[in-house]
Amino acid sequence: GAVVSQHPSRVICKSGTSVKIECRSLDFQATTMFWYRQFPKQSLMLMATSNEGSKATYEQGVEKDKFLINHASLTLSTLTVTSAHPEDSSFYICSAGKSRTDTQYFGPGTRLTVL
Amino acid sequence: KQEVTQIPAALSVPEGENLVLNCSFTDSAIYNLQWFRQDPGKGLTSLLLIQSSQREQTSGRLNASLDKSSGRSTLYIAASQPGDSATYLCAVKGGNQFYFGTGTSLTVIP
């Protein structure tokens, strides 16, 4: 089956710093990847759609200047949380699929804690 | 906007019982519906994918049904085991987006 990896799995940073999270599709190419955020005991909320070679599409209420997304290749998308604050502490998960109707494969998630 | 609801929010059953988890969605224009399992602090594991043209899918002790016209899906788990304890999420795909339900936290008591 298809595998999606995320790095790092866990990161702790100080308030005001920036953190980059990588999402890779290991054995397939993905023109579109998705970034989600999950707060404790809540469901996943779509943050943005990452499009290879073009700008990301952000959901309403998600600050594009704070959550920078880069989809430089068909196997890699990055999410950078800029000037992180404690309220950005969350579980960030990415997903990718081979096609529009295919199963979505999810990464293992990245736990971000901002002190 | 698509809204996905899961009932119940939490469920506790003794080992061996059969159980049903429910998922409802407001917009029937979907590509597919997927059931996931999430263990605490972990990512998502895909369990079953039902395309919009299908009525059900089966994998081992799991059976998922889809009634697109009524906006409902069920996940049936047969002969539950303690290892089934996790949060179960359903998600519908409309356009290029996934919309997730609120999840059902399942505890199977040995």
State the order of secondary-structure elements of chain A, H for helix, E for strand.
Answer: EEEEEEEEEEE
- Mean model confidence by pLDDT of chain A: 90
Q: H/E series of chain B, N to C? A: EEEEEEEEEEE
**So how many helices of chain A?**
0
What is the rounded Rg of chain B?
Answer: 13 Å
User: If interface size is counted as residues with C-beta under 8 Å from the partner's C-beta, which chains form the largest one?
Assistant: A-B, 23 and 23 residues
Gap from first CA to last CA of chain B: 41 Å
Keyphrases for this structure?
heterodimer, A: 115 residues, 4-stranded antiparallel sheet, B: 110 residues, mainly beta, 6-stranded mixed sheet, 5-stranded antiparallel sheet, 11 strands
Draw up the topology in text.
The complex is a heterodimer of chains A (115) and B (110).
Chain A: E1 4-7, E2 10-13, E3 19-25, E4 32-38, E5 44-51, E6 57-58, E7 67-73, E8 76-81, E9 90-96, E10 105-106, E11 110-114
Parallel strand pairs in A: 2-11
Antiparallel strand pairs in A: 1-3, 3-8, 4-5, 4-9, 5-6, 7-8, 9-10, 9-11
Chain B: E1 4-7, E2 10-14, E3 19-25, E4 32-38, E5 44-51, E6 56-59, E7 62-67, E8 72-77, E9 86-94, E10 97-100, E11 104-109
Parallel strand pairs in B: 2-11
Antiparallel strand pairs in B: 1-3, 3-8, 4-5, 4-9, 6-7, 7-8, 9-10, 9-11
